[in-house]
Q: What sequence folds into this?
């Protein structure tokens, strides 16, 4: 695959940050839920060019820092906001790392085909244990897409 963009900082930082911001627009108060189907595309393009953990981390930072600002009013809210955002960004970094591993072992095509499954598995992993936190899961962004939500009675939230 021949790179569309030549600038390495554009691919390494800007595209993952763009993905994070597009994901943010899917949630309140913007509620542009249709973007959920396209928001990860810049990150995936960036991951296809190389890298992994760091690019996912940039996307996570751009998504979770503004998404979790509702934590500010609680006691020690600024610290809670920052620590929670950094922690949650690790999951998108994990997505980037797993994608990169699949890309290196099986190729870009297999990595792209497996990306939705990897994304859902990481969101499922994010909900486990005492640090489980599902705020910002992509399924929540689709609250207004009533026809799409009908499958949830068969598959559940992750379907």
A:
């Amino acid at each position: 695959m021949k790179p569309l963009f030549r600038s390495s900082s554009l691919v390494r930082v800007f595209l993952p940050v763009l993905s994070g911001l597009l994901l943010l627009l899917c949630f309140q108060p913007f509620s542009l839920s249709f973007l959920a189907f396209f928001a990860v595309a810049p990150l995936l393009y960036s991951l296809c060019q190389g890298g992994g953990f760091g690019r996912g981390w940039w996307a996570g930072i751009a998504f979770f820092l503004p998404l979790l600002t509702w934590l500010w009013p609680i006691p020690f809210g600024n610290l809670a906001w920052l620590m929670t955002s950094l922690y949650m960004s690790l999951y998108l970094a994990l997505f980037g790392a797993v994608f990169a591993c699949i890309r290196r072992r099986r190729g870009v095509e297999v990595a792209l085909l497996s990306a939705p499954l990897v994304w859902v598995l990481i969101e499922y992993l994010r909900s486990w244990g005492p640090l489980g936190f599902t705020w910002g899961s992509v399924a929540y962004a689709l609250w207004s897409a009533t026809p799409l939500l009908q499958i949830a009675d068969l598959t559940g939230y992750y379907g």
Q: What stands out?
A: The helical segments are 8-25, 41-49, 53-67, 77-106, 108-126, 138-141, 146-149, 152-155. The two ends are 31 Å apart (CA to CA).
